[in-house]
Amino acid sequence: MEVEKKETQSKETIRRSERQAFIDNLKFSLYLLRKNPLVMAGILMVVFFVVTALLSHVLVDPATAGVYDFSKNYGWSKDAWFQWGVQARIIDEFHVFGTDGWGRDILHMMILALPLDLSIAVAIVSGAVAFGVCLGAVAGFVGGKLDEAILRITDIFFAFPGLVLAMVFAAVFGRNMVSLVMAVLAVWWPVYVRLIRGQVLAEKERAYIQALKAAGLGRVRILFRHILPNTIYPILVQATLDLGGVILTFSALMFLGFSPNPAMPELGNLASDGIGHFFEAPWLIVFPGLAILTIALAFNLLGDGLRDVLDPRLRR
Amino acid sequence: MKIYVYIIRRLILMIFVLFGVSVIVFVLARGFPSALDPAAMYITEHTTAEQYAKIVEDHGFNKPLYVQYFYWLQDVFGGDWGVSKWAASQPTYKVFFDRFPYTVELTVVAVLMTVAIGIPLGIISAIRNNKIEDHVSRLIALTGYSTPSYWMGYVLQLIFFYYFYMWGLPYLPNKGMVDEFLLGTIPRVSGVPILDGLLAGNLTYAWSALVHVLMPAFTLAFISLGTLARLIRASMLEVMRQDYIILARSKGLAERVVIYRHAMKNALIPAVTLTGLLFAGLLGGAMITEYVFTWPGVGRMSLQAVFQGDSNFLLLYSLVLAAIIVFTNLVVDVLYAFLDPRIKY
Amino acid sequence: MTEREVLLKIEDLKLNFHTYRGEVKALNGADLTVYRGEVLSLVGESGCGKSTAAHAILGLLPDNAYILGGRIIFKGEDLLKKSGAEIREIRAKQIAMIFQDPMTYLNPVLTAGTQLREVFDLNEDFLKQETILSLENPGRKPDYDIYLTTRTSGETAQDARVSKGDLKATANRLSRDFLTLTQLPDPERIMTQYPHELSGGMRQRVMIAMALARRPYLLIADEITSALDVTVQAQILQFLKALRDKTDAAILFITHDLSVAAELSDRIAVMYGGSVVEVAPTAELFQRPLHPYTQLLQKSIPDVRKVEKRLDSIPGFVPDMISPPSGCRFHPRCPYAREKCHLEKPPMIEVEKGRFVACYNYEVQAS
Amino acid sequence: MKGAILTVRNLKTWFPMRGGILQRISGYLKAVDDVSFDVLEGETLGLVGESGAGKTTVANTLLRLVPHHDGEAYFKDTEIFSAKGRDLRNLRRSMQIIFQDPYASLDPRQTVMSMLMEVLRTHGIVSDKSEAREKALELLNKVGMTDEHLFRYPHEFSGGQRQRIAVARALALDPVFMFLDEPTSFLDVSVQASALNLLKDLQADRRLTYVFISHNLSVVRYMSDRIAVMYLGKVVEIADKKVIYVSPEHPYTYFLMAAIPVPDPTYKRKEVLLTGDIPSPVNAPSGCRFRTRCPFATDRCTREEPPLTEIRAGHWVACHYVGSLDFEKIGAGMAASAA
Description:
The complex is a heterotetramer of chains A (about 325), B (about 350), C (about 375) and D (about 350). Chain A is globular and about 75 Å long. The model of chain A is unreliable at about 1-5 and about 75-85 (pLDDT under 50). Chain A has helices at about 1-35, 35-55, 55-60, 105-140, 145-160, 165-175, 175-205, 205-215, 220-225, 230-260, 265-270, 285-310, 310-315. The longest helix of chain A has about 35 residues, at about 105-140. By secondary structure, chain A is mostly helical. Chain A starts with a helix and ends with a helix. Chain B is mainly α and about 350 residues long. Chain B has helices at about 1-30, 50-60, 65-75, 90-125, 130-145, 150-165, 195-200, 205-240, 245-250, 255-290, 300-310, 310-340, and strands at about 85, 90. Chain B has a two-stranded antiparallel sheet with strand order 1-2. In chain B, β1 (about 85) and β2 (about 90) form a beta hairpin. In chain B, α7 packs across α8 (about 205-240), α9 crosses α10 and α10 (about 255-290) packs parallel to α11 (about 300-310). Chain C has about 375 residues and is of the alpha/beta class. Chain C folds into 2 domains: about 5-95 and about 215-365, P-loop containing nucleotide triphosphate hydrolases (Rossmann fold); about 105-210, no CATH class. Chain C is built from 15 helices and 12 strands. In chain C, the strands form 2 sheets. Chain C has an 8-stranded mixed sheet, with helices on both faces. A 4-stranded antiparallel sheet of chain C has the order 2-1-4-5, with helices on one face. Chains in contact: A-B, A-C, A-D, B-C, B-D, C-D. The interface between A and B is large, with 49 and 55 residues.
């Protein structure tokens, strides 16, 4: 009996100490977050947007977005839509953010656009991270000729000016969601290759990796079980910041006219409707643009805060 | 001896990068004739089927891609960058370099604004760390970082052009790079309006050019001054934690002297690198701002080129800007060596 | 021993650091006296507060440090009550500090010369006086004795007009002289070099020159030999011993290495857990250590001459300063710990002339 | 030598320095240059020298953490640098290393349990979880720690405790040979003594062979049986510890021993000082590398590199003028000039 008690007791203390370590870590991170008011604002805004996106189909009936009849070839001008003869582009007590070219309430459209924009951002960033982790980790860990080759390729992509590559990509592969997402992804992955390559190179030299090598652990195991888990924090920070950046880029493409469907409820696309008549109906651009700004700001505030919290110097 | 070896090595790498850029754009622009027909630049509404076939034959558009690439290279080295139909079929080279100085002017003024506002913002938020000034400047920086440039452009126009005009206040123009009635009144030397105005001694021209560039340049600057401010804040905080700052204080130096003589020099070195990258980034990013302000730069034209399917212009645009981006990085790295004595090549 | 003049007296200094884990109680009543012209070693393990106390003297503490109590009397005045400008004046002319790792304490982007000349900008009077002397007789050899004697308070700056150019030239000359004083070969070249171009030993000598150039009354050396190789350490120690006899400035030598302290100092103060536990003349401290910690510390140091003796290690671990042990902070590891040691912190008492110890039962094990 | 468990012959570890446009190799940083020594079974060989001597590089090269340039090394008749597959795995099991910085030698994201488990499972020493936990507890007790430390993260331990965990992890593979790369230089004196005693007891208990690397000569004297002194990538003297401290033959060893601080104020140290600084290993001096600082240096030392010769049983020195050096004269000369 006595042995069991000691056994369960030590098992209990063991579980407690594991939980204790986790709680200690959490308590410390919260302490740092509280210290910075901007981060708290960031967290609240992100939570607000995610919740609104999830409930968007409840808040607003998706049918109101209207259907863009592909059969009729409207060509490129937007005016073809006006035959609907619906009161367009006015601001009144019913439509607090005003209506767009097709008489749709802009606030409703923005709410409908949220899930689309957020999911696209998450898709692109996770794609870039996955791509970057593979190439970056291999380049950093293997080194030599392969590392040189991967570096040169990322240099090429970094040399491309602004959106031109994404635009050419979208123009060539047609205006559908997949090609647009691929277009932005094509411009975004090099950031992560460089970030992860740098992290792996730094971590590889640390003493505990040498010790593991000396203990005969396999190179692949060391890379995925030890080096990569220790580089998660910087990737997390960059990914959070990039969620904002991707929404800006993607909506810019839409704004310039690359959207597959002019009536699609996407923030950049909504804003592009106001290009021709900005001074008569400024709300067409101002409110969707403001939405993009606040979403990006939310992610940037959060990412910026995470960087301070996860700063290794502070953690120790 | 060392430094020029490094430069030569970097120049060779640069050629490789430009080659890579040209291949990618070439494959995209010429590889999918159904989407982007290279022959489109040479046909008019009433070219017949055989004429079309003859054009395709002459220009070798039907040949395998790598053969086309060599033809393209031959032409390019011969100075022939093809023709841009949508710009009255003028040679693409002329179309591009007529308007290129305008983009340069816009970007340079934007970078100057970024530096002028970003560095003080960063220093203040570092020195007044975690106090009100720090949070305010961080908020400005992050807002700039998250603002869609087109939204910023239109909002500025709405206020400083439309409403100011309505309220009778002195308003900023929102179109073009100089007043219409002044166009062409002075000889074109560098092509940069402000510079040409000054060179020609025509102050009204130069002033009008400056006034025109303010709003678009600020739109561009607002996005990047956040990045610069944040970097300066981070590097200032990092430097202020260093041991040699403690030694400087232990010498009895006033805090002001410690910051300006010891901390500043170390903290601003990374800013040089970032300013170089920002300049390169703005060159590309100017596209949307030029579109919003109808600024006659190459960025706006590249947008038209994409919609018009003009692969000649896109190739030229990508290569010239890529060359500038890579060259700026080289200049910045070499400059880094002069500022930080520890780095030797 | 005649009653010597007291230069610096730290009385019951209490200091905490705010960290995310809680309050680090770095100093809980440190008492220390430095006499004029002596070499006092402050010995203790990491975390005992020796470096914190030194930084507190000059007010160089990080901003998460809070002084809870106590006084630092320097030449009769409490430094803690002084204003920023007054403290800077003292740092510039009265107390100079040399730091541990020469690699990080010199500014990497400024030449050694610039960083050394800077010291003279704040010593206008000394600079002006030297300029006048060198103008009167140009061929004058550098008078190292003057450089090393601390300034008498009477030295006021003559009001003779001296040109900026002369002052700058003298600053250069003085910088070279002080580099030669610290046995640095070819000072001319070193002035133009950047810190990363110098070796560890040379960088440390540049820092020593910076300190001596201020002709201070008190020189604080914070572990200045710990980051150096054995042979370079020996060079610096020999220089300090020679310096000790030539200058009338007091040296507060902070180290964790009892052997280095043995070689250099007139008196040794041992610190543990944020307070001074024993102070004694060097020879007596080694022959008859009174505090249990000093005894155990001496037994756990490997002595290159005695080969077979198995080292005694001090049981337990270095105390956690966030929740330190009550009363005397050494009681968990002390073989003689009694009930009283758990309750109250033992006061520092003068057991014999010049010998202090903070322990309740030092008589028990001394007899 | 007879009974040697590790023999090293003409080991060279050169790091290529690349320059020029095509990044061709323009020279070598000869961190370890033609080093030969033996380590007898069950003894502790002290490897001593100042920074830049190449002590750590020797250990890293022999453990194949750093590529070797030339030379061979045999560990119990297995050639280390050409070992592959099964031989290499056995080498990895029998030779282990303890690093200097306790804060960097443990993965911050792993608990002690998963650290030990991983090593045990990789080499198939343990089949299932419960046996692994038992073995882990046994290892922890062997290094003086208890089961409540099992599920803690490295940042919850002091420097001394972390070093003990690193030792436990090394012991998990039941090695016979261990490199100790300055294991106690980060620890305080009081904790250092208990760590050194732990290593000594483990050596006696499991008949381990150590190479103890350090720049602290008093600690090396306490731990070692024989001592090898290195200067700028070369071994200059190897001798039994009783001999080398009392009557060193190589000038550098003489200055090194004279520079050791001693915890006794009455001890009058020889007024002997090595001047100048350690030259950069990139363009090391020709011939004998110590000639730039050696008071006895002649032009022969510049031309000809002195080979490591056995002047007496077990006493090797690399100097042209062994035996004919009058250290006393040097001592007196220096004392005069220093006054």
